[in-house]
Amino acid sequence: MSKTYLIVTEQRDGKLRRVSLEALRAALDCAEAGDEIHAALLGEGLDGLAAELAGYPLAQVHAIEGEELRHYNPEAYIGALAPLLEALRPAGLFLGHTALGRDLAPALAARLSAGQISDVTAIERDGGERDGGERDGGERDDGERDDGERHGGQIVFVRPLYAGKAIERKVFTAFPQVVTVRANNLPAAEPRRDGGTAIVAKRAAAPVADLRTVVREVVRRTAGKIDLTEARIVIAGGRGVKSAEGFRPLEELAGLLGGAVGASRGACDAGYCDYGLQIGQTGKVVTPEIYIACGISGAIQHLAGMSGSRVIVAINKDPEAPIFSIADFGIVGDLFEVVPLLTQAFRQA
Ligand code: FAD
């Protein structure tokens, strides 16, 4: 019997978050021929975003508008999604493993009496790698993968445990299912190539009775900056940066490369930067394509947040620094000399 899957998408500053397209990729990988994938979009003034989403391989985009949905509020979001869940009775929900996804997914799983697998970094079927590694097969004209083995086989969700020290392979034994995907691990779904568009169903959110909390305002410290957890390039500074001012060359390089600045806890504890930039076991987990560690020794707690990066570059004046043991490229030198040289070289390139 064909199934319906629902992606709960996220936007930021009026832009669709890339992790939502990675969640769509996860759903495409789980779907069999004949299954339908729908997307939910919540907020205000969604026409542009709904039209953009409709260009992806989806059956329908459900744009749910409401003042209470302008900022994330679990009660309002669950209330807005409830009629859609009732109507679609999805076999699976897919969300980004973001702050919103981590909060909303278990609440939706409880509502649906669903099982949940969180923080997925790869999807395999019958033991064969499907995503997050070597890609097989091509894309169909509608943007869906065509790998010729959509039928049968058990879907295995891969997720790191204990700050990346172990890998868990999990399977669901029943429907419905709720899945959150870690940013920058699965490839983002591509728009349809055949020019087709999904149906956009726009509706006003039904008022939620007895809303117990209302979000009046959200003040983002990193407004307008690239989200650290989704950045393709991260330039991170450690205690070796020595001061808040010492982060300027890193910010300049990040700005030039379209990346984000991160930090070790050493740098945060020393007051050089905000804890919102902390990467590691007790900070954010990042998996960019390029991670440049500047003046970071490479403590195990820091590695827990960045060792999944595709290419790691370390700049440290101590040749014995542990960070070099996991770096793909190491530069032994003073970061205050090396970083401006890199910036200069990229500017000339
Ligand atoms: P240091 O270890 O002091 O390293 C500074 C480095 O800079 C040195 O290697 C030095 O050679 C180099 N350096 C100095 N000057 C220069 C220069 N001019 N040019 C180039 N290199 C230079 N840490 C995290 O990062 N994230 C976490 O989430 C985290 N969680 C933790 C949780 C727990 C429970 C505990 C106990 C610790 C945690 N830590 C975490 C702290 C961690 O153990 C380290 O103390 C911390 O990562 C060290 O930060 P650092 O590398 O910036 O500083």
TrEMBL record:
<dbReference type="InterPro" id="IPR001308">
    <property type="entry name" value="ETF_a/FixB"/>
</dbReference>
<feature type="region of interest" description="Disordered">
    <location>
        <begin position="121"/>
        <end position="150"/>
    </location>
</feature>
<feature type="domain" description="Electron transfer flavoprotein alpha/beta-subunit N-terminal">
    <location>
        <begin position="4"/>
        <end position="215"/>
    </location>
</feature>
<keyword id="KW-0274">FAD</keyword>
<keyword id="KW-0813">Transport</keyword>
<dbReference type="InterPro" id="IPR029035">
    <property type="entry name" value="DHS-like_NAD/FAD-binding_dom"/>
</dbReference>
<dbReference type="Pfam" id="PF00766">
    <property type="entry name" value="ETF_alpha"/>
</dbReference>
<dbReference type="InterPro" id="IPR018206">
    <property type="entry name" value="ETF_asu_C_CS"/>
</dbReference>
<dbReference type="InterPro" id="IPR014731">
    <property type="entry name" value="ETF_asu_C"/>
</dbReference>
<comment type="similarity">
    <text>Belongs to the ETF alpha-subunit/FixB family.</text>
</comment>
<keyword id="KW-0249">Electron transport</keyword>
<feature type="compositionally biased region" description="Basic and acidic residues">
    <location>
        <begin position="122"/>
        <end position="150"/>
    </location>
</feature>
<dbReference type="InterPro" id="IPR014729">
    <property type="entry name" value="Rossmann-like_a/b/a_fold"/>
</dbReference>
<protein>
    <submittedName>
        <fullName>Electron transfer flavoprotein subunit alpha/FixB family protein</fullName>
    </submittedName>
</protein>
<dbReference type="Pfam" id="PF01012">
    <property type="entry name" value="ETF"/>
</dbReference>
<keyword id="KW-0285">Flavoprotein</keyword>
<dbReference type="InterPro" id="IPR033947">
    <property type="entry name" value="ETF_alpha_N"/>
</dbReference>
<dbReference type="InterPro" id="IPR014730">
    <property type="entry name" value="ETF_a/b_N"/>
</dbReference>
